[in-house]
Amino acid sequence: MTPITANDALHDFWDSAQLPALIDGLVEHGWYVGEGFLDVTLCRELREELERLHHLAALQEAAIGRGDERTLRRDIRGDAIHWLDRESLAQRRYLALMGELQQQINVALYAGLFEFEAHFAHYPPGAFYRKHYDSFRGRANRIISTVLYLNPDWPTDGGGEMALYDEHDTEREVARVHPEAGTFACFLSDRIPHEVLPTRLPRVSIAGWFRRNASLGGVIDPAR
Ligand code: OGA
Ligand code: MN
Questions:
Q1: Does residue 101 line the site of ligand 1, with CB under 6 A?
Q2: Which atom of ligand 1 is nearest to the CA of 185?
């Protein structure tokens, strides 16, 4: 197993020239979308790993809500997931990049981001994820949401776009993200409503969240 160190040439795996625009986007609108953000080979390795997990039936149907309120609601959310667990070099590379991004965002925005959690997601044909926020104001420990898309040559009529809505005018769509491999989106978890439109083809991605530690009264916030 090759350990990933700070010296690993991370710049080989992402287009870090997009960082200033990413920071600006978060500050100005609360969101950013960059095409060709991540190296195609790393995206392919991540997609192959997700497809292996899918074929091994190692994905779990995604639930909504937390704690006692967790339920399966196919009418709200239709993906199946697997939490990243550092099993593969590709995962460790991606997590190292997100660690670097976390540091960059903290330096630029004093955001106090503390950790990153992420899962692979597989949407079968017909699946969608209705409009939602990734966290709620006040109890937000998910601060910034991220999505990396892994679908090479996604057709224009493939569906499965992510629609982002305006922070203040939540009915106004402000971006529609084609889930093409290498495209990376991020947005403020408690500000930006978003949805996954019904997909026509199997659709693969990695959804992740930068978190702040929300320990309260000696109770450590659970990781998931
Ligand atoms: C999510 C989510 C968007 C996407 O998993 O919370 O909104 O495009 N995903 O996969
Ligand atoms: Mn979401």
A1: no
A2: 8
> pTM for the whole thing?
0.91
Question: Dihedrals φ, ψ of 49, to 5°?
Answer: -65, -45
Straight-line distance from the first to the last Cα atom of the chain, in angstroms, rounded to the nearest whole number: 27
Ligand 1 atom with minimal separation from the 203 CA: 10
Write out pLDDT tens, residues 19-59: 999 999 999 999 999 999 999 999 999 999 999 999 999 99
Token pair belonging to 186: 């991020």
- Strand-pairing partners, residue 101, are none
Fold for 20-115+123-211, please state it. Answer: Jelly Rolls (2.60.120)
So where are the chain's domains? 20-115+123-211
φ/ψ of residue 92, rounded to 5: -65, -35
